[in-house]
Amino acid sequence: MRPSAVRLLNILVPVKRTVDYAVKIRVNPDQKGVDLNVKHSMNPFDEIAVEEAVRLRERLKDEVKSIKVVTIGPTKAAETLRTALAIGADSAIHIEVPESAPAPEPLGVAKALRAVIEREKEGVDLVIMGKQAIDDDAGQTGQMLAGLMDWAQATFASKLVVDPKKKEAEVTREIDGGLQELKCRLPLVVTTDLRLNEPRYASLPNIMKAKKKPIEKLTPAELGVDLKPILETIKVTEPPKRVGGGKVENVDQLIAKLKEAGITPVKS
To answer: Which of 191, 114, 211, 33 is closest to 95 using CA atoms?
Structure first.
């Protein structure tokens, strides 16, 4: 009796185009959001996810069949996909939305990713994505996708070891009390933390090769999903400016200052 063939891994990596982490954020004039007419780049946690997918292929060699990246965004978001392709992904999907469209919420993104996974003929075994995007800091999409797919999930990963033969993954994740080790069955959704790896810089030859790699364009309608937000932003304001502190000579002066500020010291 012949042993069953080992299924090669198909990896999906969602990425997001966000305001570059080094840009100083400013509220736009209508106070409904922030000024987006600034430099954008790939969400840093998603860069880590792409890097980890490429490293998995380097470690597992022929056991990884494909690495596909997907994004939701306007025409300019194709630049983010090209960056991921230059790092080492094989192909990409661009779910294109108008420039003026509001940013989709985590549940809408998760539903779109579910639709992408369900239409992949060869299936998806592993989704690696950033634990959060630095623009909304929601940190919900990975968990929602795992729930919609009824897949295992391992969030805030700082180490990932995959065994395609056993269809298992061992994940070390960051928690408040330290580290937690999980063993998960594939298919699996993993969200990446900062300590998982340090993304590489794309070399010039790989940047040139990325221009020839395929990007499939889709619309939300073709996927059967509605990305219209269900939440309304009433107002966005900048945090109050910090006021400089002062020095006191002794405890009595400290207590006096606290009382002036309306804070009553508690006796031990």
So the answer is: 114
d(C-alpha 148, C-alpha 146), whole Å? 6
What are the average pLDDT values for consecutive 10-residue runs of the chain, which has 268 residues? Answer: 63 94 84 81 96 96 94 94 96 94 91 96 94 91 96 96 95 92 96 94 92 95 93 84 83 87 73
**β-pair type (168-175, 178-185):** antiparallel
pLDDT recorded at residue 3: 43
Contacts of 218 (CB under 8 A, 6+ apart): 93, 94, 95, 96, 116
The Cα 100–Cα 103 span in angstroms is 9
Domains in the chain with CATH codes: 9-242 (3.40.50.620)
Task: Name 10's bridge partners.
Answer: 66
Task: Give buried/exposed letters for 158-178 (b at 16+ CB in 10 A, else e).
Answer: bbbebebeebebebbbbeeee
| pLDDT of res. 2 | 41
CB neighbours of 150 closer than 8 A, spacing ≥ 6?
none
Distance CA(247)–CA(230), nearest Å, equals 48
The model's pTM is 0.85
